[in-house]
Amino acid sequence: MSSTPQAARRGKPAPYAARDDAAAAAPAPMPAHRVVQAYDRWSPLYDLIFGRVLEPGRRAMTRAAAALQPDSLLEVGVGTGLTLAGYPAHTRVVGVDLSAEMLERARTRAAALRGRDIALHLMNAEAMDFPDDSFDCVAMPYVLSVTPQPARLVAEVRRVCRPGGTILVVNHFSGSRFWWLMERAVRSMAQRVGFRSDFGFEEHVLVHDWQLQAVQSVNLFGLSRLVVLRNTKAKA
């Protein structure tokens, strides 16, 4: 993983990149109930369509989690459970998702991992039921740009992650020259499944006061990034 400048490590936002009028006029985020409908509808085909193409990012994330050896880990947006087998066997894993159809497939995968402590819950990650400081590590694979209110999700993730814990984010962020035209071409279609193709790293990661530890490009031609963050917050 690449190291980052000291200013970025302190979580200080870099200057926002200039935006064109089209980006500034991006559609409003999809409401939560429509995100649920979209993923329930896509659940039978999700692994086939998105499984392999996004698998390098998932593997990079689970390797980062394995290096940490956390006692407890929360995965936000666990989906069909494609990452579950990659977490350390001793780690207590909790997964949450909005889609009941996706969770049914995740439960089948979890049942095959005998001897693992895995619990899966139907839950809105923007308003979780867990107490403060419940987890050593929180993983968010491909969820930050599909949640209706990213800032609210970040606040909840930081609340349930212990002080000094690790937050792992895998997501597509705009700004790559290679993907610039693609982001704009697929924006309308992406909105139909609740995905923001034009999603800024500065606005949604660097703007927060957590500690940015590392960033790694993952997936085809750097489509996504694995971001490792230290949850710097005062102890309760």
Number of domains: 1
Overall outline = globular
Number of helices: 9
Structural class: alpha/beta
> In angstroms, what is the radius of gyration?
17 Å
Helix content: 25-40%
Largest sheet: 7 strands, mixed
CATH topology: Rossmann fold
CATH architecture: 3-Layer(aba) Sandwich
Provide the β-strand percentage band.
15-25%
Order of strands in the sheet with most strands: 3-2-1-4-5-7-6
Number of strands: 7
Quick check: average pLDDT?
Answer: 78
Low-confidence runs of at least 5 consecutive residues = 2-27, 178-195
Distance between the termini: 31 Å
Order of helices and strands: HHHHEEHEEHEHHHEE
Which CATH class is shown? Alpha Beta
CATH superfamily: Vaccinia Virus protein VP39
What does this protein structure show overall?
The chain has one domain: Rossmann fold. α3 crosses α5 (100-112). The protein is globular, with a radius of gyration of 17 Å. The chain has 236 residues and is of the alpha/beta class. It starts with 5 loop residues before the first helix and ends in a 6-residue tail after the last strand. α5 links the parallel β2 and β3. A seven-stranded mixed β-sheet has the order 3-2-1-4-5-7-6. It has helices at 6-9, 21-24, 32-51, 55-68, 100-112, 150-160, 180-185, 187-192, 201-206, and strands spanning 72-76, 92-97, 118-122, 135-141, 161-171, 211-218, 224-230.
Pick out its properties.
Methyltransferase domain-containing protein; Methyltransf_Superfamily; globular; SAM-dependent_MTases_sf; Rossmann fold; alpha/beta
